[in-house]
Amino acid sequence: MKEDQLHVKAPGNWMNDPNGFIYYKGEYHLFYQYFPYGLQWGTMHWGHATSPDLVTWTHHPIALFPSKGYDQNGCFSGTALEVQGQLFLFYTAVKYDVINEENVHVIVDDRFESSQAVMISEDGYTFDNLTSKRQIIPPIVDSDLGDRTHTRDPKVWMHQDRYYMILGTKTRDQQGKLLFYTSEDLFHWSVVNSYTKPGLGYMWECPDMFSLPDLLTDAQHTVLLMSPEGIHDGPLYTSHAMCSLVSFQEESCDIVIPDHLLMVDYGRDLYAPQTNLDAAGRRVMVAWMRMPLPVEKPGENPWIGMMALPRVIEVENEHVYFRVHPEVEAYFKSSIAIEQIDYTKPFQLKTVLQEHEILDIGGYRVWLEGGRLHTDRAEVFRGLDQYDLQFQTPELQGECELNIFVEPNLIEIFVNQGQYVLSNVVYDLKAYVSYMGQLECKIADV
Fold first, then answer.
1. What is the DSSP-derived secondary structure letter of residue 12?
2. What is the pLDDT of residues 4-15, one digit of tens each?
């Protein structure tokens, strides 16, 4: 079985959205969208990795694969819930209306239907795709409610002895929409409410909602994460992970989303975040990093797609913070000189950046200008100028304290203890770090 350190990477071939992230029976389970037959998006399966600590990950055999009439063309994104010791995996099942005779893994003219299904596992390792699946919400036929094709990504939770589900869909006039369902037994579901808001894209993917206290006040907040499609904020990626504090009444599922949402990550490669509670009860997020090209190295299976570092979500003064998980922080123990870095392995950099100072990490440039953190990956992105190459955070208040995690294909910058995060996929980092200021460097003590 393949093992990953810190970042979960596709074990060969294609990976995208995280699925079913959960702390279950003493370890973390992370499932993910997986196409095991090639380096491109195709018929979705659920890959499976586990970790005792969110740092060291072990890959296991495929958990979910198409096996029913309703999911014959893909087991798409969803979430996990522990119920009386069993692991319930909720997912979106896809069935094509017409088969592409030249390539059965390619959709023809967006002609398919989506339904919601569940798979039950007794132990988190045994998955009977033939007898343990059940369709729980059939394809939508009422276009006033939602879309037959584009309704997906169930998030399920329990509140006061009832189960709730949120789904992303869209309206007939191409506006993103949320659907809320309730159930008493996890198998029979009824619509409770819906919500739409113009101007936030044409489809709302991967919705996730949870409650968090404000660390600096007595307030309790509801945080919404979702990934709207049709948010035009770059030359190529038009779908982005966004977050906001929202007004939400749990029993009625009445929700109000404000006009302005924040980016989950200002590097704009991160997508489809999903959260759950860790062993200590903290709200932890995992997310997919979009990659335009596969990574190919001698002796390894080519792969494309990886996960960002696990991040703890907290709220301070009504601002959502994304902080590197303390297990990850504790992994980097040994201080070393810059000249001693092994650039084939992960390392951590810390500094306080001053206005107009430039930190150059192997060709990836970081600087502070006009109170905003800026980055440029043009020199380490293989000439892919059709993608975003330069990025910036919103204006910072006060100093610019950076906590940076570097590995050969990903740089993640936590600004001011998670006030903002800016992460970028890279391909061609050179073996140097150049900076005139004070710089602390750490590596794993293994």
1. S
2. 999 999 999 999
